[in-house]
Specification:
The chain has about 600 residues and is α+β, with helices and mostly antiparallel strands. The protein folds into four domains: about 1-120, Jelly Rolls (Sandwich), CATH 2.60.120.10; about 145-250, CBS-domain (Roll); about 325-445, Beta Polymerase, domain 2, CATH 3.30.460.10; about 455-600. Helix 20 (about 520-530) packs antiparallel against helix 21 (about 535-560) and helix 21 packs across helix 22 (about 575-600). It is globular, with a radius of gyration of 27 Å. The termini are far apart.
């Protein structure tokens, strides 16, 4: 029996149990052997009274005969039926000879059933949680899985003829070949543009095509393709091969899960809102949608990318609906921080900035622009988005400047780190995404690329970035707060996400390319030689795990109506997760130390 106890003590949901409870459960274990291709659980059968823990081997989880998950040693199955009293929703079949521990409902065997951590399955596992949709469980599979065959038409074909061919082919789209290049028409275009009388039904279809094509690589996952649909606000993506040749089309309606499509529906409601009140009502759907995505196994960084797109759409719509607010000069609104990088948490606030066009001879417009920005931010908050509590807002003149002023000040930051606030402000400005007047808004990003970064700046900026340390101690497992409301807890945002994001940002500035988020930046640093060996893989894995854990905690807080927090008590984690977290902290800390000692030699 000791072997059973030792094994269960290392596995969720039993790792938090006392030795006495583990022994009670172990005494009820039955060992069962199943040959390959044995069906252990049949979907729709009577509710289960025993759950299974895999000791050796592996099993496949099937939904209507389709494999949606694969489980290995230490994983449990059948527990959902046991816990709910409902018939099992999925079948389970062995994929090799498998040895299982079979045990009755553990809640009836222990003193404190609440200590069972069923809710923490998959916190740091790469496996997706079981869901009611095979699509969601296979969010990492290729977009080509749902790709439709292309219907080709010529730009000179009439709209009537094209609509007929689409109807015959049972397609909602057609790709248009024209002298200008390839375009796309959809049934939505027909309804909107012909219904409004913009085109005659006998007009050439090329006049109403969308051009250029919005494409996605055939190497992309379903989750990434869906995220691109939300970001671009479209319902069709053209799938292209490595030579950018169209090979198919994926449609939002083919991603049939209501849960998966809900962010796209929110995006549509945001863009169709005709008043701030309408927009506020649509924005209320954001957090419930994040909870739903989380519950359906979408990885946190994919959900964060969707959140960034929706937040950007909300602020863009606020600016569009506020026609009564007139700016004195053309200007670009920017989003900063984690939302700009595409990796916010559910409770992240919104950092904003403004770049305005230089207008010689025009009275200094800064006061009017910041006053207008204050009104915009108030409307944004009415839509449920919180402004930055640390002052990185467009109504703060530190973050609202003319184009020439931004060029001057950002050049100064990159050459003279002794200037007031240079290190902090340059790091903030490196994470930006323009929402309006894109050419104007790229001013800061382009200046970082074009300005020669001094060695002095890079050295001081690296020390600034590496000041963010993982909370790992020499004696204790973790360094936690010793007083205040977070006593005994550690801040996973400051101690986990920030060290990796700060180093990735520094590398992006050093290379003069601050596009994308933390993982994109780490990838480019690895390609350039700034990161060596498996350093990039370690940093990406740690960042992904930190983000998932904080995201999980914030979602749970939202679910029960508490204010989300990035603080977590290590004691609340199961032993496997705690051990994984400790090793991730140590790995990041080790890379920080190595990089600090060798960065000069690594610079391209």
């Amino acid at each position: 029996m000791q072997e059973f106890t030792n094994f269960l003590a290392k596995q969720s949901p039993f790792s938090a149990l006392s030795n006495e409870d583990l022994e009670r459960i172990s005494s009820k274990i039955e060992v069962e052997y199943f040959a390959r291709d044995s069906v252990i659980v049949t979907a729709g059968s009577a509710p289960l009274h025993h759950l299974f823990i895999i000791r050796t081997g592996s099993v496949e989880v099937l939904d209507k005969g389709k494999v949606i998950d694969q489980l290995g040693s230490g994983d449990a199955f059948g527990h959902i039926s046991v816990l709910t009293g409902l018939p099992p929703e999925y079948s389970v079949r062995t994929s090799e000879d498998t040895l299982c521990y079979r045990l009755p409902d553990p809640r009836e065997l222990i003193e404190n059933p609440a200590s069972l951590k069923f809710g923490h399955f998959g916190t740091f596992n790469t496996r997706h949680r079981l869901t009611a949709s095979a699509l969601l469980s296979d969010a990492q599979s290729s977009v080509t899985r749902y790709m439709r065959e292309i219907l080709w038409v010529n730009a000179t074909d009439s709209i009537r003829e094209t609509a007929g061919r689409m109807n015959e082919a049972d397609q909602s789209f057609a790709l248009v070949q024209s002298r200008e290049g390839l375009g796309l028409v959809t049934d939505r275009d027909f309804r909107k543009k012909i219904g409004r009388g913009e085109f005659s039904i006998d007009a050439p279809v090329g006049g109403m095509m969308s051009f250029p094509l919005i494409t996605v690589s055939n190497k992309a996952t379903l989750a990434l393709a869906f995220m691109q649909m939300v970001e671009r606000g479209v319902n069709h993506l053209v799938v292209v091969d490595e030579f950018d040749k169209p090979i198919g089309v994926v449609r939002a309606m083919d991603l049939s899960s209501v849960q998966l499509r809900s962010p796209l529906l929110i995006r549509a409601q945001i863009e169709s809102a005709q008043s701030i009140d309408d927009l506020a009502a649509a924005s209320l759907l954001l957090k419930p949608s994040l909870v739903e995505l989380h519950d359906n196994g979408i990885p946190s960084l994919h959900a964060a990318g969707l959140m960034s797109a929706i937040v950007s759409a909300i602020l863009t719509r606020v600016l569009t609906l506020s026609s009564s607010v007139t700016d004195p000069v053309p200007l670009s609104w920017l989003i900063l921080g984690s939302i700009a990088r595409g990796e916010p948490l559910p409770a992240s606030d919104v950092d904003t900035a403004i770049v305005w066009a230089d207008q010689p001879g025009v009275t200094d417009p800064s006061d009017q622009i910041t006053n207008n920005a204050k009104q915009m931010l108030e409307l944004m908050e009415k839509c449920g988005l919180e402004r930055c509590s640390n002052g990185a807002n467009a109504d703060n003149k530190l973050f609202t400047r003319s184009r020439s002023a931004w060029v001057e000040v950002s050049s100064g930051w990159l050459t003279d780190p002794t200037r007031a606030g240079a290190l902090l402000l340059s790091s903030i400005a490196a994470d930006n995404q323009p929402l309006t007047q894109l050419t104007l808004g790229r001013t800061i990003m382009e200046n970082i690329r074009e300005t020669t970064r001094s060695r002095e700046y890079l050295a001081d900026a690296l020390r600034f970035a590496l000041a963010k340390k993982p909370p790992i101690g020499f004696v204790k497992e973790f360094i936690v707060d010793h007083s205040g409301e977070n006593k005994g807890e550690l801040d996973l945002k400051e101690g986990g996400l920030a060290p990796v994001a700060s180093l990735a940002r520094w590398m992006a500035i050093a290379m003069g390319d601050v596009r994308g988020g933390t993982i994109d930046r780490i990838g480019r640093a690895s390609e350039s030689g700034l990161l060596l060996g498996d350093e990039a893989e370690i940093l990406i894995g740690a960042f992904t795990d930190f983000h998932q854990l904080v995201f999980n905690e914030e979602i749970e807080a939202i679910r029960i109506g508490n204010r989300p927090s990035t603080w977590i008590s290590p004691d609340s984690l199961d032993s496997l997760t705690r051990s994984h977290l400790r090793e991730s902290f140590r790995a990041v800390s080790g890379i920080q130390s190595t990089f600090e000692a060798s960065w000069i030699k690594r610079l391209p």
